[in-house]
Write a structure and sequence with these properties.
14 helices; mainly alpha; 3 domains; 2 strands; 67% helix; single chain
């Protein structure tokens, strides 16, 4: 392998890491995104050059189509649709990894070492799960299917069976060389089935965490395919994406006070209630209070003996207020209400600041 290729690969990986580091601050996030994008584009050119296909017109035409599609998608998508777009991009990354693995298996399987054969099957599995799971996540967030967790009959059984089957068939390709292509196709089908079973039982509110995890999977799939084709640049960049996605997933779980297993199981926290004895009469349901905008609650008279709006009282007494917008505010289109609340607070001399929630 060309030493220059390895050296430049290390430099580009470092630039991607630097770009991710810059994205941690709002002041440098835009430049960090541009730096990472430039490094990735350079990595594509480096890969084409290293394989002697830099001047193939068909590849440039394909990249032009992809660039036009990505640019159009990026310009037309609304900010509240950004999670759906990220899910789609994760799915495309997983599909690309699965396709590369399949092409390697179909073309060079008999010349590959055992490690590369296994990594090829693993690339099919992770890539397929990432693709189908991301498509379900995008559909849920875009409300093209129910956002409630979907649990099929014997859901865990079928999910576990698909895991055992796809790994078993992947290992079986080592012993049945003549049937490697149909076995690999079955592995790819089963991985997509598991991706669906994996994603449909996650509720819409927890989908940002799932998308972050699938983002990690897309990087992991790319890194695995890098082992399949023995490409250190793909291994490094895929590992960076996989690790950063996993770290972000952990941060989001802590921010939501949820465990990853709890999120992926589709469990919904239920409020605990004190068990009633037979002697206790059932309580009459309380009349629900009419919703009052925050700005009106802020202006409620302070002479009132019992303030029915404790949040409004706290806001009236506060000298500094930090508002943390989240995905729920975007979905509810409540930006104008938050702006009116900010204006009302500032009119009475309260200092108002905005913070960024890790999930948002």
């Amino acid at each position: 392998m060309d030493r220059l290729y390895v050296v430049v690969s290390i430099v580009l990986s470092g630039l991607v890491l630097l770009g991710i580091k810059m994205m941690s601050s709002p002041r440098t996030a835009v430049n960090g995104n541009r730096l990472s994008a430039l490094a990735m584009f350079t990595a594509i050119l480096l890969t084409l050059w290293n394989n002697g296909i830099l001047t193939v017109p068909l590849l440039w035409a394909a990249m032009a189509v992809g660039a036009a599609f990505g640019l159009t998608l990026g310009l037309r998508v609304k900010m509240i649709q950004m999670p759906q777009m990220v899910a789609l991009l994760n799915g495309f990354g997983g599909a690309a990894s699965a396709l590369v693995s399949m092409m390697e298996v179909m073309d060079k399987y008999h010349q590959m070492a055992t490690f590369n054969k296994l990594s090829g099957q693993l690339g099919l599995i992770v890539g397929g799960v990432t693709f189908s799971g991301s498509m379900i996540a995008a559909a849920k967030l875009d409300r093209r299917m129910t956002q409630m967790p979907v649990h099929l009959p014997n859901h865990n059984f079928w999910a576990n069976l698909s895991i055992v089957a796809m790994f078993g068939l992947g290992i079986a390709t080592l012993f049945f060389d003549t049937a490697v292509v149909p076995l690999s196709v079955l592995v790819l089908i089963l991985s997509n089935i598991y991706g669906v079973l994996f994603a449909i039982r996650v509720g819409g509110a927890d989908m940002p965490i799932t998308i972050s995890l699938l983002n990690s999977f897309s990087g992991l799939a790319g890194s695995i395919v890098g082992f399949t084709i023995s490409d250190p640049l793909l291994i490094a960049l895929g590992a960076i994406v996989g690790a950063s996605g996993l770290i972000l997933t952990q941060i989001m779980c802590r921010a939501m006070n949820r465990s990853l297993a709890h999120v992926l199981s589709g469990a919904i926290a239920k409020p605990s209630s004190k068990p009633k004895t037979q002697d206790e009469a059932p309580e009459a349901p309380a009349e629900p209070a009419a919703p009052v905008p925050a700005a009106e609650a802020l202006q409620a008279p302070e002479e009132q003996a019992e303030d029915p709006f404790p949040a409004g009282r706290m806001l009236r007494e506060a000298k500094r207020v930090i508002i943390v917008p989240g995905y729920g505010m975007a979905i509810a289109q409540a930006q104008q209400h938050v702006k009116r609340l900010m204006d009302a607070l500032e009119a009475k001399g309260t200092e108002v600041k905005f913070a960024i929630h890790p999930v948002a």
